[in-house]
Amino acid sequence: MIRWGILGTARINRRVIPAMRLARRSDLISVASRDRARAEAYAREWSIPRAVAGYQTLLDDSNIDAVYIPLPNTGHVEWTLAAIAAGKHVLCEKPLALDPADVDRIATAAARARVIVEEGFMYRHEPLTEKVMSLINDGAIGTVRAVMSGFTFALDSAPNIRLDPALGGGSLWDVGGYPVTYAQLIIGHEPKMVFGTAHWHESGVDEEFMGMLRFGGGATANIYAGFRAAYRTWLEILGSDGGLTVPNPFKPGPIETLDLERNGALERIAVIGSAEIFVREIEDFEASVLDGAPPVVSLAESRRTAGTLVALHAAARETGRG
Ligand SMILES: NC(=O)c1ccc[n+]([C@@H]2O[C@H](COP(=O)([O-])OP(=O)(O)OC[C@H]3O[C@@H](n4cnc5c(N)ncnc54)[C@H](OP(=O)(O)O)[C@@H]3O)[C@@H](O)[C@H]2O)c1
To answer: Is the CB of 72 within 6 Å of ligand 1?
Structure first.
């Protein structure tokens, strides 16, 4: 069994705690908050046996094997390194780091401490992604030429870490990693050139981001991330022999239908997914920690992701705010 602790009483925990309970070899035993009363109330609400004040206090608990880190983006590197130093395995929410050099520091420390560190991209663990990749790799649409993908939702006016530049806010860091990682997964490597432009929120973060990626080998991708339109996610892949349309690529439901078009004919392919998302992410992490399976999202991949996102940001800053 993996004995888990969670750093912070984040909203996303509402999806991950039930998944930890459904996963076969996980036991959630502690939650930490910056505030003792909040930790205690949270532990009562979620029936977590232990509540502690301060993230380091949880890391110092020798009964914890692994931590889940759902902190604001700027806390990911600091607390991942602290967890590694305490000998804990780490499942850290995306984005693992806002600088590829920090992924290198994490990789070096994790290798030395012999712990698993994985960035949480839940969609990567779902059967829908596996089906898409097997169709692409089997040549269902020929050579991939273009990927179009995005993730948007409307942020309400309540205070949110996503609008705070000091906490690593912005739509690209928040949801841009989804289309970027999917495009890189399909095409097989990082782009050679990127172009980006954004609408900027008064706080200074990008609240809508459009990016173009040109890959060696002749493929391109266009990606979209945003806080200004209603919830929508999409993925369309164009190949030399056809096209594939993927509904709900990043949060698949229990049954999804892929549209595969080839030679003017449309084939609808049903994919049975998870009854509860996030469970497979936790179970794959169990397999890495307990059985030695390689993490589905490797640190080498996390480094490529951070590199591309940093380059996109730099490109958008160059195009200015006009
Ligand atoms: N995989 C997914 O599908 C998914 C979905 C949503 C979010 N996420 C990721 O999960 C992370 C958390 O997102 P969220 O929306 O759940 O965030 P949230 O509700 O704002 O929670 C963040 C938590 O971090 C702690 N924290 C530490 N320093 C903080 C600070 N200066 N300001 C605010 N909170 C601080 C707080 O816990 P305490 O006060 O208890 O210490 C807070 O509850 C982000 O990295 C995000 O990208 C992933």
So the answer is: yes
Distance (Å) from CA 72 to ligand 1 centroid: 5
Same structural domain, 101 and 177: no
pLDDT tens, 85-101?
999 999 999 999 999 99
192 catalytic? Reply is no
Q: C-alpha 300: how far from its chain's center?
A: 14
Residue type at 150 in one-letter notation: G
pTM: 0.97
Q: Which helix (H) or strand (E) holds 199?
A: strand 193-200
Max Cα separation, the chain?
A: 62
Q: Is the pLDDT of residue 165 over 90?
A: yes
Catalytic site residue from 94, 131, 192, 251: 94
Whether residue 150 is found in the same domain as residue 27: no
Last residue of a domain, one of 122, 145, 176: 122
Judgement on whether residues 145 and 236 belong to the same structural domain of the protein: yes
Q: How far apart are CA 134 and CA 126, in angstroms?
A: 13
Report the CATH number at residue 186: 3.30.360.10
Residues 165 and 307 occupy one common structural domain? yes
Per-residue pLDDT tens over the stretch 233-251: 999 999 999 999 999 999 9
Q: Is the CB of 161 under 6 A from ligand 1?
A: yes
pLDDT score for 322: 59
Same-domain status, 115 and 172: no
* Ligand 1 contact, 256 CB (< 6 A): no
CATH for 80: 3.40.50.720
**Measured between alpha carbons, how far is 161 from 170 in angstroms, rounded to an integer?**
9
